[in-house]
UniProtKB/TrEMBL annotation:
Domain of life of the organism encoding this protein: Eukaryota
Assigned protein family: Belongs to the group II decarboxylase family.
Keyword annotations: Lyase, Pyridoxal phosphate
GO biological-process terms attached to the record: amino acid metabolic process; carboxylic acid metabolic process; catecholamine metabolic process
Keyword Lyase: yes
Secretion signal, residue range per the UniProt entry: none
GO cellular component: cytoplasm
Cofactor: pyridoxal 5'-phosphate
Keyword hit for Lyase: yes
GO molecular function: aromatic-L-amino-acid decarboxylase activity; pyridoxal phosphate binding
A Pfam entry, by short name: Pyridoxal_deC
Positions carrying N6-(pyridoxal phosphate)lysine: 310
Name recorded for this polypeptide: Aromatic-L-amino-acid decarboxylase
Length: 486
């Protein structure tokens, strides 16, 4: 394909995406396909002679669209929001256009330099403590992680990476005190802790990193109870085990609860245990001063992570991580080869020592586009608008005596039909069967709840009204036919 054809193909593709967004509201939020559907639509072999781009683009409608779940539909209220915006799409496209591989500074200086600058911008946007920033005097700094690039499912590269760094740090610390100890002996005794409300990727990090992850039952507000953490650590120490890593969460996946860092932090610091803070979704809200009290105590953390690809308009994947002391990453993971040597850098990090993959994508570019084109105020307005929509939905629940509000935080509202759990289970199934809106269910303090999340940036009050109407009309049916359960 030559550049003239690329111009046509590329412009047609941009038009396609723009048309997609213009029509997304009218598309059913759910796909309507069966497993294996696509195998029937395309040949079993690749074409012998190349196809025309126009034919290929047409097949996107026929083959791909039926199997897309429309995450950016205003009727999508499942999981958490998956960020997307036009500046980010263009940034992603241009990054693909340049495709250099950021294996070190020299391999494309702009990759590393823009990432350093963007991590400073982001850190300042969230008002993270100075010691986390690349621009501070100390050994702290930030890096963009890929999350999921290398691990399927909901694993998080950051949680795993910090666990591995914490492990190495603990081995070094203990050997400094007692040089006779050997690595294997120490490593088999290490333990990590989180709450049972933490993301599945936290438990998975324990499995991947071969450190038992104790999932401490959360309190009735869904928070990690500090006294239970201390108790568990003492119990483990009494058995000769060695606490080494704690994951606290700001904005848990089930209910968006916020762990109290002012309680957990001092315990971790006293016990010399690495504290990682997972704020994957809710971290974006710290761009607004009114939510920053929720990260009070973050100065105790050894590492902090949030994902602009969730709630900050940068499309997948782009996850930001800061560490108090980058030496703990670079000491743990540094491997060099002659072909990787680059000029001795002073103020600029070699990010390949900070992450698992050697090469890095130009993720900073889309971040730069988003931060420049929205600006701090644009991001703040976006977050506030989404929270206001959740509050509006919350009020609809509260005002209807058939329903009970179970919890509401940021863009997430959990509620149930009053009465037996089974009523809400049937309601949930009816809603999903009917396919007009997409929600999830879960448990909160033993109650079966419907989990309603504000996801799409296209969602407006009228969409919330429609969603509520759908829920109420299904609820009426459920109460009429199953009300005896009450
Ligand atoms: C979504 C989420 C994750 C996983 O993030 P991905 O970016 O999807 O890998 C981890 N922790 C929390 C609290 C989350 O909400």
């Amino acid at each position: 394909m030559n550049t003239d054809q690329f111009r046509q193909f590329g412009k047609a593709a941009v038009d396609y995406i723009a048309d997609y967004f213009d029509s997304i509201k009218n598309r059913p939020v759910f796909h309507s396909v069966h497993p294996g559907y696509l195998q029937e639509l395309i040949p079993a072999e690749p074409p012998r002679r190349g196809d025309l781009w126009k034919d290929v683009l047409q097949d996107v409608d026929r083959v791909i669209m039926p199997g897309i779940t429309h995450w950016h539909s205003p009727n999508f209220h499942a999981y958490f929001s998956a960020a997307n915006s036009f500046p980010a799409i263009v940034g992603e496209m241009m990054g693909a256009g340049f495709t250099s591989i950021g294996i070190n500074w020299m391999a494309s200086p702009a990759y590393t330099e823009l990432e350093v600058a963007m991590m400073n911008w982001l850190g300042k946007l969230l008002h993270l403590p100075e010691h986390f920033l690349n621009c501070s005097d100390g050994p702290g700094g930030g890096v963009i992680q890929a999350y999921k690039t290398y691990f399927q499912g909901s694993a998080s590269e950051t949680t795993l990476l910090c666990l591995l760094a914490a492990k190495e740090k603990k081995v070094r610390d203990l050997k400094a005190l007692n040089p006779d100890l050997n690595d294997t002996e120490i490593k088999t005794k290490l333990v990590a802790y989180s709450s049972d409300q933490s993301n599945s990727s936290v438990e998975r990090a324990g499995l991947l990193g071969s450190v038992p992850m104790r999932l401490i039952p959360a309190d009735e507000d869904g928070k990690f109870p500090a006294n239970k953490l201390l108790e568990a650590m003492r119990k483990d120490r009494a058995q000769g085990l060695i606490p080494c890593y704690v994951v606290a969460c700001l904005g848990t996946t089930p209910t968006c609860a916020f762990d109290d860092l002012t309680e957990l932090g001092p315990i971790c610091n006293q016990e010399n245990v690495w504290l990682h803070v997972d704020a994957a979704y809710a971290g974006a809200a710290f761009s607004c001063p009114e939510y920053r009290y929720l990260m009070e105590g973050v100065e105790y953390a050894d590492s902090f992570n949030f994902s602009p690809h969730k709630w900050m308009l940068v499309n997948f994947d782009c996850s930001a991580m800061w560490v108090r002391n980058a030496r703990f990453l670079t000491d743990a993971f540094q491997v060099d080869r002659i072909y990787l040597k680059s000029k001795q850098l002073t103020s600029i990090p070699e990010y390949r020592h900070w992450r698992i993959p050697l090469g890095g994508k130009f993720r900073a570019l889309k971040l730069w586009f988003v931060l420049r084109i929205y600006g701090v105020e644009g991001i703040q307005n976006y977050i506030r608008h989404q929270v206001a929509l959740a509050k509006y939905f919350e009020q609809l629940v509260v005002d209807d005596s058939r329903f009970e509000l179970c919890c509401s935080n940021m863009g997430l509202v959990c509620f149930q039909l009053r009465g037996d759990n089974e009523l809400t289970e049937i309601l949930f199934e009816k809603i999903i069967e009917n396919r007009n809106i997409f929600v999830l269910s879960g448990y909160f303090n033993g109650k079966y709840v419907i989990r309603f999340s504000i996801c799409s940036q296209l969602t407006e009050r009228c969409d919330i009204d429609n969603a509520w109407q759908e829920i109420v009309s299904q609820a009426k049916f459920v109460l009429r036919h199953h009300g005896g359960l009450r």
